[in-house]
Every structure is written in C-alpha cells, then in structure tokens.
Amino acid sequence: MDTLRSTAVPAAAAGVAGVAGSFAVVGFTPAFVGSTLSDAVALVTPGVVVTFAITVLGDLGKQLTVAGGVALAAALFGSLAAFALAVGRALGSRAAAPVVGAASVFGVATLVTAAPLASLGAAAAAGAALAVHAGLSGGATEPVDSGARRRVLGTLAAGLAAVGIGYPLGTLRGPAAPSDGEVTGEARALLDDAAAKSLPVGGLEPLVSDEFYRVDIAAAPPAIDPEEWSLSVTGAVESEVDVGYDDLTAMPSSEVFSTLRCVGEPLNGRKMDTALWTAVPLADLLERAGAGENCCVMLRAADDYYEEFPLAALESGMLAYRMNGRPLPRGHGAPVRALIPGHWGEINVKWLTEIEVLSEPAEGYWENRGWHGTGPVNTVAKLHAVERDDGRITVAGHAYAGTRGVSAVEVSTDGGATWTGATLSEPLVGSDGAPAADAWRQWSHEYESPGERHEVVVRAREADGTLQPEDRADAFPSGPTGWVSRELRG
Fold it and tell me: Which spans does this entry mark as compositional bias, Basic and acidic residues (predicted)?
C-alpha cells in the first residue's frame, strides 16, 4: 500500500500537470494533447455510437469526447511518470524521476501531437511535479513514514498549481472575438434593418442569431493564419487554381443573409441560425479552373473534414470571409468557409482548403458513417417562444425552407383540427436589394387561452404553396421532418 501511494499520487499529479502544461502553451487548439486524443477517440468510435451521440446526447456527446481525451492524456502522462518514479527508485536517485519523466512526456507528446512547443510545456509541468515530490522526499528509496502525508499533499498541490496556472494561460490563447472596431457601412445598415424586422416576442431569437450553433468533427477548431492560407481547385479540371486570402478578398463580394441548419438536430431543436455573410461567388473559381460538366465536388478542410455533393449545387455557392460585418470567427471557419444555399449545414465546409472536382461520385465524411445529408434541407416551422398576457397566449418561432423560401406559417391550437395563418416577419434583404433566397423568417400567433391544456401544431408553406410534410422522421439519416407540436397549459 505504501509503495502504491508513493507512486500513484505523484504519477497522477504529474499526469494532470502535464496536460495543464500543454494547455498553457497552446490553449484549446489542435496542438493541445487533450484535443488530439479526443479526435483519435472520435475517429475510432463506431458509427452507431457517433449517431447516438449526435441524435440523443447532442452537445453533451462532444463534451464527453473532449473530457475523455483530456482524461486519456492525463492517464498517459501519469503512466510515464510512474515509469520515471520506478527508474528513480531503481537508480537510487531523486533527480532521475523528474528528468526521465520530463523526457518521456516530451517524446510521447511530440509523437502524439506533432507539436514540440506544446510537448515542451507538458514535459516541463510534469517534470516540475515530479521534482516537487522528489524534493519533499527524504530520498528516492526512503520508505513512506510520518512525512507521507506531507509529501502527498505537497505533490497534489503541485498538480493543482499547474492547473491553476495553466488554465488561465491557455484561455488567453483561445480564439479571440473577431473585431475590426465598430461595424459600419453596408453591413451595419443591413444588420439594423434585420433588427427592425425582428418580431417583438420575448424569448424569440432575432432574425440575425445572437449565438450561432457549431458542429465540428475536431475537438478544437483549427487556428489558421490568413497570410498562410490558400484555397486550391484541383481534380478533373483543365488547370488547377490556387488563391490566397488577399486574392480572394479582392474579388467582387456581396453581403448575403443565409441560414444554416444541422442535419442531426431534433425536429424542434435549436441548431438552426442565420447570419449576414460577406462572400464571393464560388463559381468564378470553378470557371477559371475549367470544371466542365463533371458530376461532383469534394470540399476539403484543414481539420481533415470532407464532403461531397453535386457540382451543380456550387452554381450559387459562395466563399464567406466575414460574418455579421466582422472577420469570420475561428470557430466558424476562419479564414474562409463555404456557403452552399439551401443545403444542410454539414455541406457548408469550414476552414476550407481544397475544392476537388470529381468525374465520378464519392462519399463524404458523414456518408461514410451512414448519413445522407448532402441534399436540400427539409422545410420546418419551429415553435420556441411562448408568452402569456391577460388571458391571451402568443406562440412564435422560425420557419425555413432553404432556397424554396417560406410564404406562410399556419398554426393550430386544437391539435390540428383547425388552422390559422401566423404573422410573418418581413423577408431579409441582402446587398443586392432582393429578398434573401436562403434565410429563415420569424412567425408569431396570438390567441385567447382556452383555459385548459391544449396542443399547438405549426407547419410551413414554401414560396410556391407546397405544404411542409406532416410525417415525422428522425434526424438519422437524412434530417428530421414533420410538423412541430407542443402541449401548453391554458
């Protein structure tokens, strides 16, 4: 028991310290050992488990994966520290354990992350924790005695100190909020217009989302220097094209409102949001490369994500580099992401680095895992806000039909027996002066409370009058469908 305690406590403390040291140097980036191992866990997780995590656990699934990666990293470094302690005892040297431990952590961490700087931080912190333990010991071969408690507490304090120092340092290296000062000019005017058009219902997100949802395959978003970024058009083309950030942002651009919806969200979920994007036409690059009449494209990203869909879908596609009048945030694909109007969010690849033109169909990242979300987004009317005032009830939400547009939302307060047209927000208008082709609309409906529990059902009609399908389907494999319903008290 004494030997176990004299090894387990300092090894665990060193393991935790090593993770904290890695985080202190690089923050929550792909170079952080915890995010690297999280990605490895996700890569080997069976598709059925991934589907469960997406459709049932939602964001919690991603958080658990990250926590698992961090725990795995601490266990890995702790095992190396235990090995170093054993070496120190065998050699009868207090100095051996910190040296061997730091060297082992540095070597293994570098192999795992390919990031020597982050590995150096991990090694220094783990070695420091082992050095504290050695300093509190009477000798490397000294048995546990009345000073055992002092050594245990001191070693634990060293590990906690590493976390206390490493965590705030690492957060300083996280993604900074994009800022170019005050948003002015055309973007400011369009955002103000969107705010004025938003319906005044409490709890209803405005037409330009307060917080835009995120779904990534990587634990940490890539951190890409715009000056080093480039986008290549490759594959079945007449000549490959490569453009840098300055080249792309010098192209004629426009301000467009566009909505993105996650294929894996619940029917009445909240992974559907809208922003104002500054973007350039993608078709210009395809034409320059000579993409011809090929069938498909594969979009590839810096985080190794890839997605395939028909070449024709790119005719209205865009490359966005600003969001709501500010530089594109790191978490949303900086420096450049794809916007493919009317398609599920997974198609709108972030951190875009390559457009590969294909002569034959292929499968994308999620298709290889059983999903089929490359097609046009399903029409939906969501019910998210409920207000009560003096015997009257107001229900409200958002409706979205991709590029097909929304012409009406109908509400039933008696479980679908009768229907009433809801009030719609005015369409958003981009810099071209035309109603946004791929943006949601808000809806609201006020009615007198029936005084008892009742079922509210909502459905949308597309611009041509087509009614949203009633039959419900789960998110897997092609996105959720059906009318949203909610039981309310009178």
Answer: 461-474
Give the separation between CA 278 and CA 23, rounded to whole angstroms. 33
Strand partners, 319: 280, 338
Query: What domains are there in the chain, each with its CATH number?
Result: 2-171 (no CATH), 185-369 (3.90.420.10), 380-488 (2.60.40.650)
| pLDDT tens, position by position, 229-250 | 999 999 999 999 999 999 999 9
The pair of three-digit structure tokens given for residue 391, joined into one six-digit string: 């015997």
Model pTM score? 0.88
Least confident of 266-280, 362-376, 377-391, 428-442: 362-376
